[in-house]
Amino acid sequence: MTTWITICDTCKRDGWNDGDMAITDGEALAALVETAAAGLTSVRTRRVSCLMGCTRACNVAIQGPGKLNYTLGAFEPSQDAASGIITYAKAHAESDTGRVPYRDWPEAIKGHFVTRHPPLPEGE
Ligand code: FES
After folding, report:
1. What CATH number does the domain containing 109 carry?
2. Of 24, 69, 93, 103, which is least surrounded by CB within 10 A?
3. Ligand 1 site: residues with CB under 6 angstroms?
4. Distance CA 65, CA 82 (A)
5. Separation of CA 124 and ligand 1 centre (Å)
């Protein structure tokens, strides 16, 4: 089953105004995640503008139908973060419940979980 990574493309980390401001931090992270996800069948990506976690930029959501879903934040727009997000999303896709054992968490996502959402009841 497909796991979706929803990336906020309007996130700006502290100090963003001091950079060249050509793109937001969220756009930079989104591009890295999209590149890392290219060719994967179990993981897809999409961008949204604001996940309402602005003070913890950069933010992503990891979601799959009928599974535990998560938001994660405080990512730098780095290759390491993008790789960790993808590795975790692949494990989420392989899981029946969305619960990925801690031993399988990539180092880059540890300490970044913000919320967990249980799946909605079916048929209601
Ligand atoms: S701008 Fe990214 S969560 Fe609000």
Report:
1. 3.40.30.10
2. 103
3. 8, 10-11, 26, 50-54, 57, 59
4. 22
5. 30
Pocket test for ligand 1, best of 6, 7, 10, 46 (most atoms within 8 A of CB): 10
- Tens of pLDDT, residue by residue, the chain (124 residues): 899 999 999 999 999 999 888 999 999 999 999 999 999 999 999 999 999 999 999 999 999 999 999 999 999 999 999 999 999 999 999 999 999 999 999 999 999 999 999 999 987 6
Taking the CA of residue 58 as reference, the ligand 1 atom at the shortest distance is 2
Number of structural domains (the chain) is 1
Burial classification of residue 20, based on how many CB atoms lie within 10 Å of its CB (0-12 exposed, 13-18 middle, 19 or more buried) = exposed
Phi first, then psi: what are they for 123, rounded to 5°?
A: 75, 15
Task: For residue 85, give its domain range.
Answer: 3-117
